[in-house]
Amino acid sequence: MRNHEQPQDAQCMPEALVSQVANAAKEAGVGLAGENALPRYDETAHDQVRATAAEKAEEDRMVAFTYLRMGPDLFQPDNWRRFAAFVKRMTETGVRDVSREQVEREAQGVAHATQGVIQEAAVALCN
């Protein structure tokens, strides 16, 4: 969640809150773990998670991230492909220099290869 995505009358600043918690964890000498708060499957949300969790100096990265809200919507083909790309980018941050296009191609392959299993999971979640 980004500050500018929130309604003005809510007077909330999720980015500032995460920064405050991250600074407190660093000062206390403990690792920071996080999770997604909302069921968002778009690249903007995934990019925000990556920027917060993985694209910082190694000592400032989150030690763990839990992806919540794994429901039927996640298993829709486009959402699943984006999720596969998100996971790949999260796990490979700093490991190898790969273009976004290459990650998308690889994620498309994963999405295609797992299509049957994913559809079964979506049906099971709906029942």
Q: Outline the biggest β-sheet.
A: 2 strands, parallel
Q: Report the principal-axis shape.
A: globular
Mean pLDDT: 81
Task: Tell me the Rg in angstroms.
Answer: 16 Å
Report the sheet-strand fraction.
under 5%
Question: Percent of residues in helical segments?
Answer: 40-55%
Name the descriptors.
single chain, mainly alpha, 2 domains, two-stranded parallel ribbon, about 5% strand, globular, Beta-amylase, GH
What do these coordinates show?
It is globular and about 45 Å long. The chain has helices at residues 14-28, 43-53, 77-92, 100-113, 115-126; strands at residues 33-35, 64-66. Helices cover 54% and strands 5% of the residues. It has a two-stranded parallel sheet with strand order 1-2. Helix 3 (77-92) packs across helix 4. The protein contains five helices and two strands. The chain folds into two domains: 1-69, no CATH class; 70-127, no CATH class. It is mainly alpha-helical and 127 residues long.
Question: In summary, what is this structure?
Answer:
With 127 residues, the chain is mainly α.
Write the layout of secondary structure elements.
Layout: H1 14-28, E1 33-35, H2 43-53, E2 64-66, H3 77-92, H4 100-113, H5 115-126
Parallel strand pairs: 1-2
Helix pairs in contact: 2-3, 3-4
